[in-house]
Design a protein that fits this description.
The chain is mainly alpha-helical. The chain has one domain (24-88). Helices cover 65% and strands 0% of the residues. It is built from four helices and no strands. It starts with 6 loop residues before the first helix and ends in a 5-residue tail after the last helix.
C-alpha cells in the first residue's frame, strides 16, 4: 500500500466536484461524501459529519469545508490543493 499523501487525488476530486456543483455546494454534498468516505476512505462517516457541521458554523460559504477535508487528508498542502481544485477547471 502506498503511504504517500494523495495530492493528485485531492486536486482531482475537488476539481471534479466544482464542475458538478451547478446548483451550489449542497448539490454535490452526497457525491462529496461518497468520494471522501466510501471511495477513497479519507474520512469516516462521523468525521465527515463533524467537518460538515464545522462548515455550517463557520462564516462564508459552507463548502469551504473542503479545506478541512484536504487538511485532514494531507495537512497544509492538502488544504491548499482542495481549495485550489475549483481553480484548475
Amino acid at each position: 500500500m502506498d503511504s504517500s499523501p494523495p495530492y493528485l487525488s485531492i486536486l482531482g476530486v475537488f476539481a471534479l466536484l466544482s464542475v458538478l456543483a451547478v446548483g451550489g455546494g449542497a448539490a454535490v454534498l452526497p457525491e462529496t461524501k461518497a468520494l471522501t468516505v466510501t471511495h477513497f476512505h479519507w474520512l469516516a462517516d462521523d468525521e465527515f459529519r463533524d467537518i460538515y457541521g464545522l462548515g455550517q458554523l463557520s462564516p462564508g460559504p459552507n463548502m469551504l469545508m473542503v479545506i478541512a477535508i484536504g487538511y485532514w487528508v494531507a495537512g497544509y498542502p492538502g488544504a491548499a490543493l482542495a481549495f485550489l481544485g475549483p481553480v484548475v477547471n
